[in-house]
Write a structure and sequence with these properties.
The protein is mainly beta and about 140 residues long. About 5% of the residues lie in helices and about 40% in strands. It has one domain: Metal Binding Protein, Guanine Nucleotide Exchange Factor, Chain A. It has a seven-stranded mixed beta sheet with strand order 6-7-8-9-4-3-10, with helices on one face. The longest helix has 7 residues.
Length: about 140
């Protein structure tokens, strides 16, 4: 994936659409409890971009899941869309499943591995961070 590549995606019903340009800054699994509850999945895989590389169409519902953390989802179909943290200005993290070609994004690390569900066995050699992989 090069600097000039474009990745398109959106929610299940098409109400919310995104387009990200270039290479993402990070592709990271998150094992934290908050992400599990927000996604309904045992682990989330996020693709992080600078906000100036992303165009969005449609109006997702945005809520504060914890102080300074905003998550969005489609108000029509319920698809989780993104995560933004005020401690990480100028960055947005999309659930990999919103992209039309999620296979293009290769995971780079595990974040909040200390909260991983004990029965989830991911056999890879990726770095495992006890807490966040991104300094805040």
């Amino acid at each position: 994936m090069g600097e000039n590549s474009v990745s398109d995606g959106g929610c299940r019903c098409g109400e919310v659409k995104i387009q990200a340009r270039g290479r993402p800054e990070t592709v990271t699994y998150c094992h934290c409890r908050d992400c599990r509850r927000s996604s309904g999945a045992p682990v989330s895989l996020f693709v992080g971009y600078r906000t100036d590389r992303v165009e969005r169409r449609g109006e997702p519902k945005v809520y504060e899941s914890s102080p300074g953390v905003r998550r969005s989802f489609c108000y029509e179909c319920g698809s989780p869309i993104s995560y933004e943290d005020e401690r990480l200005p100028g960055r947005v993290y999309f659930h990999v499943g919103v992209f039309n070609e999620p296979e293009k994004f290769e995971p780079q690390a595990h974040s909040w591995f200390s909260q991983r569900l004990w029965w989830l066995d991911l056999r890879d050699d990726l770095p495992r961070y006890r807490e966040s992989s991104v300094p805040r």
